[in-house]
Amino acid sequence: MVMLHSSNGKVVLSRLDHFLTNQRSNWCSREVVNSAWFSSSAGELDLSNWKRLHTRILGISSSKISPSSLKIIRVLQCAGYEAYFVGGCVRDLVLQRVPKDFDIITTAGLKQIKRMFRRALIVGQRFPICRVYLRGSFVEVSSFETSSQNCSRDEFSYPKMPKGCDPRDFFRWKNCMKRDFTVNSLFFDPLRSVVFDYVDALKDLRSMELRTIMPAHLSFKEDEARILRGLRLAARLNMTFSKEAEKAIYRLSSSVANLSKPRIALEMNYMLSYGAAESSILLLQKFKVLEILLPFQAAYFSEQSSNGLDLRSTMLTKLFSNMDRLVSCDQPAHESLWVAIFAFHKALFSNPRHPLVVLTFASLLYHGTWGESINFSRKNFLNTEICVPEILQTFNDLSDECVADEVSQLARQVQDSVNVLVNTEYLSHEMTRFSKVACVLSAFVSQKMAQRTQHIFVVLAKDVLSLKLDRLSPQISNNLLSEGDTGEIRFVLGKIILETLVGRSVSGSFEGREQVHVQVINVLKALDVKKCKTISFVDTKVKDSPEQGQPPDDLEKGQSKRKTISFVDKSSRTVVSKGSHQMILKRDRVRVKR
């Protein structure tokens, strides 16, 4: 994950500082600007703080722009319409970050957009957009026309367009006034290499301050999700709130309970799966939002704080800190990973375990075999970082049978603990251990997601002494992780727990398995499989392959001799057995036909 205090971030902020210092005379008081924008008696606009900047000044790199989204912009503009990147993707480009997605806005109507692309779908009722599908992904395209029709700020009247003002500038300005934060209001025309700033967004990026475009209390009342979005931006970008926005969040934090459960789940996933989970959770706790969304975890933090422990030193924050090191905005995790972390931590907090048991539990998730896992645990458990109250402060030895039995008990307890995020009755019962309990308890994780998370631990809830998952490579597959592949989530969760307990990076002994991985690649090459994506072969092994996994001498590259190689996927119980005519690896979503 690229942090703002990296060398790139410093260069960008220095460039902005130099440019904006020369523009200082153009700035006006923010309070005066706000009252002018949203006053019913507003007069003519002051255009002195409107800016057009060439991307060369801002250092925007074209390598960070999605080719698919750029193609959509080009198609729209070639058809005679205005089209721009807008919102967070422009902000991230200015900050030299890779945007998680690209939003486009155009003067074309949604039906016109749909007609221009072979695969396009209009979605949404309250705020309809057009999803354009290109090259295996989709880009969301909105229309100025629809945005104008769905504006809910009828109590405000906008100033009249000043004489000499470009109508396109006025059109863009009116649209940016409907957005949440100034830093999300930039427009970017990539074909003309121009960025448009109408509300001093670049000034706020320079000062790393989050400021609402309309008065903060009105903005958050209009859409409670903006509170969560603001906290997410502050956590991810290391920004601070303006005094006005900070006061409004404290005052209106309870209003997030009005959001639907799916919307809360979506916003929480944006917070926790993209490399800023630790800072997001701490901000949620600071602004008293965590007690509404995750009351058990909020009570846990309050208890640890009352015991004099810094929240960054708790086991829960350390787990998410180690998760943040493995994911980023462009390589996120599936939400089942953070659900699993919460469930694992809750199980330990409710029933602390021997360090050898917890290490073995995590090692089995990571290494996948009992022998390797118990050896790793016995070698490292004396150096385990004892997290109180989750880990027992004891170093007495346990037999293998005792450890195996307790690991299975812990796995079943973790499965049960998922319910604290799903079932309000279960949550209410678990909250009785705390002296101070929130008046209203809520749980937002869906039952489907709960079952998916519980499935991660099924293999540990049974006979772990004979467990053998046969992972072939120690490398994390980001594609599988974002898709929520059970084997990959299990492996990454084990890595996170181990690195939290031993305080260093861990790497498994996959030497023999990596050799099999190379042998499989050789077989694929011998079969002249040309259209394969990157294949991880997670939880996969070669069966009935030629001796030592090597392709037979009589099978030269490019030949179409019929040979059969079986890939047995133990996780999904899928056996793929095809020769040179067709090879399908469902686990990695790879389909190759000859």
How is the biggest beta sheet arranged?
A: 8 strands, mixed
SS class: alpha+beta
Overall residue-averaged pLDDT value? 81
Share of β-strand residues: 5-15%
Strand order of the largest sheet: 1-8-7-2-3-6-5-4
Number of helices: 26
Stretches with pLDDT under 50, minimum 5 residues: 1-7, 22-42, 527-594
What is this structure's SSE topology?
Elements: H1 7-22, H2 30-37, E1 51-54, H3 55-58, H4 67-78, E2 83-86, H5 88-94, E3 103-106, H6 110-116, E4 120-123, E5 129-134, E6 137-143, H7 144-149, H8 167-176, E7 187-189, E8 194-197, H9 201-207, E9 209-210, H10 216-222, H11 225-237, E10 240-241, H12 243-252, H13 261-272, H14 277-286, H15 290-293, H16 295-306, H17 315-324, H18 335-350, H19 355-367, H20 370-380, H21 400-417, H22 424-430, H23 447-455, H24 478-483, H25 486-502, H26 511-526, E11 540-543, E12 565-569, E13 574-578, E14 582-585, E15 590-593
Parallel strand pairs: 3-6, 9-10
Antiparallel strand pairs: 1-8, 2-3, 2-7, 4-5, 5-6, 7-8, 11-12, 12-13, 14-15
Question: In words, what does this structure look like?
Answer:
This protein has 594 residues and is of the alpha+beta class. It is built from 26 helices and 15 strands. The strands form 4 sheets. Strands 1-8-7-2-3-6-5-4 form an 8-stranded mixed β-sheet. A hairpin with a 5-residue loop joins strand 4 and strand 5. Helix 11 crosses helix 14, helix 19 crosses helix 20 and helix 19 crosses helix 21.
